[in-house]
From TrEMBL:
Superkingdom of origin organism: Archaea
Residue span(s) of domain Helicase HerA central: 238-438
Gene3D superfamilies per UniProt: P-loop containing nucleotide triphosphate hydrolases
Segments passing through the bilayer: 6-23, 43-70, 90-111, 132-149
UniProt cross-references to Pfam families, sorted A to Z: DUF87
InterPro entries given in the database record: HerA-like, HerA_central, P-loop_NTPase
Reaction(s) the record says it catalyses: ATP + H2O = ADP + phosphate + H(+); Couples ATP hydrolysis with the unwinding of duplex DNA by translocating in the 3'-5' direction
Annotated protein name in UniProt: Helicase HerA central domain-containing protein
Record family assignment: Belongs to the HerA family.
GO molecular function: 3'-5' DNA helicase activity; 5'-3' DNA helicase activity
Keywords annotated in UniProt: Membrane, Transmembrane, Transmembrane helix
């Protein structure tokens, strides 16, 4: 915005100087026509300036603010005091200025099909805050300038006071030297500007804001799909303040190598709370953070996690149904066998005092299944048990024999769970869901008003592609905030995240190239605005590594965020 003001101010000054001093030398005008010619020249200048300012700033408010600027500039050029009588004498010139400005603005509103003003948009982005220190210093400086240099010039004093008001709302004390310019700095002083909220976890820089631009604006990401929207360059810290988000859930999507993992590493390295990373491919190494090779530990999926045997048996069979595509008869029979396995370990569904007993394992379930098959009285029963036997045998491996992971200790400090050496996807999935069930169980033990723990799941579709995993993740995301639990879901694909993204506290889209996915993220950020959609659609395939698109917390503006580089100790 400062660049625009500097360019426009320079153009106005140069044209006024040209009209006053250069034009009479270039064109010989009879003396008796000089007053008329000068008046016509000024009418033309005001007409052109009205168009120029309306086009450059796309704001009626800023156009109005420039009117006293032009009058004051002209008074300086002709060497006349800027006074009330001077303002009245030149008032007739204002007609062409405002007619041209409103005409251009009306055309812009008609083309865009909405009435908008960039000044109001800037105000909603940056807001305003009265700074008492700026008011005091500004008024003292104004009095000093008035008494020392411009005593008796009442209009100069008014201009300085307007500047003080502007800088106290939208500027800072370092802007106060501009008070010496009086009305010349009014358009800049009353333009909303400032810094965004720096509270929370700062992970990068806002390099662009998607907004309506003029011909003078360049775009951070070069796009041709829309003349209306551009990525207007800014330079603000981007910080995540989880105390202001609707929940603690974050979704990150993008192609391989676009910066998703760097985002996760950067965020957790700056967090004060604990975190647990589900690392499917062995990509995460953070200095001082313990790594656990999941292939070398064991978990027991039949652990109750403070639930009744019946409820837990249903959850386990639902998981296995999602994983192995079991039929309804298989599900019913497996549920009964698991409940009976609990009973054989002394765990009574109707007696909660027995639920703390050591649970059975899949090895116990297999032994019970084999006994049932041996005692079966019909070939139909034998076939029923035989249809389950391969799955239970597969799950009766050493990794599911006991719980060597102490979940309370695991969640007490930052940790990375490395799944890259787990032999099969089925075992990997069961371990992940079992750990998430333990997280759910521990989550219910205490509430919290702040973020206590962040769970990072890389390649989230690995879980979300299964019905049981999707149901579990959606419930954890819905209930996590009141228990101080947040989730960061990372994915190369959007397919399994479409029900989750609209309800996430934050959504970051890095480089996306698949047309259907570009269409989805462009509609998500652009809404019903077709021109914004086209700009976004052209942007996503062009995003360099480490740069993403996201919205501000209130959903008003679309940001282009560049991650910090070199801040993560790996």
């Amino acid at each position: 915005m400062l660049k625009k003001h500097a360019i426009v101010s320079t153009i106005i000054f140069l044209e006024l100087i040209f009209i006053k001093y250069a034009f009479p030398q270039l064109v010989q005008i009879p003396t008796y026509l000089s007053p008329v010619a000068e008046y016509a020249e000024l009418l033309a200048v005001f007409f052109v300036d009205g168009i120029l300012i309306a086009v450059v700033f796309t704001s009626i408010i800023i156009t109005i603010l420039y009117y006293p600027f032009i009058l004051f500039s002209y008074s300086l050029v002709i060497g006349q005091s800027f006074s009330f009588s001077y303002s009245l004498d030149t008032f007739s010139l204002s007609s062409t200025y405002f007619v041209s400005a409103f005409f251009v603005s009306f055309i812009g509103w008609f083309i865009r099909r909405n009435i908008s003003d960039s000044w109001i948009e800037q105000l909603s982005l940056f807001g305003y805050r009265i700074k008492p220190k700026v008011v005091i210093i500004g008024l003292v400086t104004t009095v000093f300038l008035y008494l020392l240099f411009f005593y008796g010039n009442f209009f100069f004093l008014i201009g300085c006071i307007v500047d003080v008001i502007g800088f106290s709302l939208f500027g800072d004390y370092y802007d106060l030297p501009l008070l010496a310019l009086s009305w010349l700095s009014v358009p800049y002083s009353l333009t909303p500007k400032g810094r965004l909220n720096n509270q929370g976890i700062c992970i990068g820089k806002i390099r662009g804001i998607l907004s309506k631009g003029s011909f003078i604006d360049s775009s951070v990401i070069k796009v041709s799909g829309s003349k209306r929207y551009k990525w207007q360059a800014v330079d603000f810290n981007y910080c995540i303040d989880f105390s202001s988000t609707k929940n603690y859930n974050v979704v990150v999507v993008g192609t391989s190598g676009s910066g998703k993992s760097s985002f996760a590493k950067l965020m957790v390295s700056k967090m004060a709370s604990n975190f647990l990373i589900f690392d499917l491919h062995g990509e995460y190494y953070l200095q001082g953070v313990k790594r656990i090779d999941v292939s070398r530990v064991s978990v027991n999926p039949l652990s109750l996690f403070n639930k009744s045997p019946k409820e837990r048996a249903l959850e386990i069979t639902y998981m296995l149904k999602s994983l192995f595509n079991l039929g309804n008869i298989q599900v019913i029979e497996l549920t009964n066998i698991i409940i009976e396995s609990y009973a054989e370990k002394g765990i009574d569904p109707d007696d909660p005092t027995t639920w703390s007993q050591p649970p059975p394992t899949f090895r116990d379930v297999l032994l019970l299944l084999e006994r049932r098959k041996k005692n079966a009285l019909s070939s139909q029963e034998i076939n029923k048990y035989q249809s389950l036997e391969p799955y239970i045998q597969y799950l009766s491996s050493t990794i599911f024999l006991s719980n060597s992971l102490d979940f309370n200790i695991l969640f007490s400090s930052p940790a990375i769970l490395d799944f890259s050496n787990v032999p099969t996807n089925e075992i990997k999935y069961i371990i992940m869901e079992t750990i998430l069930k333990s997280i759910q169980s521990l989550m219910y033990t205490s509430k919290s008003s702040k973020l206590e723990r962040m769970i990072i799941i890389d390649e989230a579709p690995f879980l979300l592609s299964k019905d049981s995993g999707k149901q579990l993740i959606e419930r954890l995301l819905a209930e996590g905030r009141k228990f101080g639990l947040g989730f960061l879901l990372i994915s190369q694909s959007i397919d399994y995240l479409k029900d989750i993204i609209p309800n996430a506290g934050l959504f970051f889209a890095f480089n996306v190239v698949e047309p259907g996915e570009i269409d989805y993220v462009s509609k998500f950020f652009g809404g019903a605005d077709l021109e914004m959609y086209y700009t976004l659609y052209e942007t996503f395939p062009k995003l360099p590594r480490g740069m993403s698109v996201t919205r501000d917390l209130l959903g008003r503006f679309v940001y282009l965020v560049q991650l910090y580089e070199g801040d993560v100790h790996v």
